[in-house]
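Saturday, quiet lab. Running sequence design on the structure tokens for the scaffold JK sent over.
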């Protein structure tokens, strides 16, 4: 049980990011005149459908494991207990994941039914909404500054999903260097905006949580939570370096008809992004420092949160 829950959360987050990225590609990165064609938009939509299915399955497993974690019971005992069904829908954390199951399943179905140029955007909006339900049930909801913490966390999760998923889709659905240049040109300002939103919201969220302890810098360097935040900030800085190098070198090589350098470099960037999400899973399982989490045991596994946050 100790490792199953983090693994299921990592699987859920990766599937969610992949689904959002495929839909960003179909709704924005593909020119409007091509969005009704079988390729590339329809290929991206089919991929989004499969990713959304994996998202729903992982969320369903996560709901069961979360409830078992909160109750302290083995999963087999929990499922056979008399109050299992009631607990599944009354405990905030498991109920929010059940909502994700329903919404992600709807994303899966809708992505397969799209037939108009506006369809991918509508499915993308639905997928973005599916990211939100688990967020208010995490650490942010139990914090004294919960409104600001929750709002910054929502911005953070949405921006990070579009940023990471969009780059993954650019690599997955490459279409030859000429058309790839247009796709990357459209993705580049989106990536910059998402990076700024991810970094700003993450710093705000980290400051809120660390400031309630013995001081931001004391908590940052003196607690496990703070060290994990430093790890995520280091990764974010490295990703900023990747973006700078793309703008300076690899996009120019792509325009010159040499896409291999861009693809190799972007592939390493995606791997770092996935590693950062994995680090965030560990952070989501770590109690927040200080007295800011009031009237709640910070080690309570019921108050773990969405793992995409840079400040977790």
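Result came back. Writing it out in full:
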């Amino acid at each position: 049980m100790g490792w199953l829950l983090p693994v299921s959360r990592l699987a859920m987050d990766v599937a969610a990011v992949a689904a959002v990225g495929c839909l960003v590609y179909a709704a924005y990165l593909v020119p409007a005149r091509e969005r009704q064609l079988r390729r590339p938009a329809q290929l991206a939509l089919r991929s989004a459908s499969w990713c959304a299915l994996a998202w729903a399955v992982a969320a369903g497993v996560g709901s069961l494991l979360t409830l078992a974690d909160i109750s302290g019971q083995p999963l087999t005992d929990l499922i056979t207990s008399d109050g299992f069904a009631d607990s599944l829908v009354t405990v905030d954390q498991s109920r929010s994941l059940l909502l994700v199951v329903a919404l992600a399943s709807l994303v899966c179905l809708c992505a397969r039914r799209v037939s108009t140029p506006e369809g991918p955007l509508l499915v993308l909006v639905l997928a973005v909404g599916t990211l939100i339900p688990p967020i208010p049930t995490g650490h942010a909801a139990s914090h004294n500054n919960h409104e600001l913490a929750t709002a910054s966390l929502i911005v953070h999760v949405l921006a990070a999903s579009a940023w990471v998923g969009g780059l993954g889709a650019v690599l997955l659905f490459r279409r030859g260097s000429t058309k790839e240049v247009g796709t990357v040109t459209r993705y580049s300002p989106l990536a910059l905006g998402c990076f700024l939103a991810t970094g700003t919201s993450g710093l705000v969220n980290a400051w809120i949580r660390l400031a309630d302890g013995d001081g931001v810098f004391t908590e940052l360097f003196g607690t496990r939570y703070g060290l994990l935040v430093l790890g995520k900030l280091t990764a974010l800085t490295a990703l900023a370096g990747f973006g700078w190098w793309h703008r300076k070198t690899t996009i120019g090589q792509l325009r010159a008809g040499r896409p291999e350098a861009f693809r190799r470099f972007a592939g390493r960037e995606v791997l770092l992004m996935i590693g950062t999400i994995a680090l965030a899973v560990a952070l989501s399982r770590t109690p927040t420092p200080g007295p800011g989490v009031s009237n709640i045991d910070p080690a309570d596994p019921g108050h773990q949160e969405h793992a995409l946050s840079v400040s977790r």
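Notes for JK: The first helix runs from residue 4 to 29. Residues 137-312 form one domain. Ask whether to fix the surface positions before the next round.
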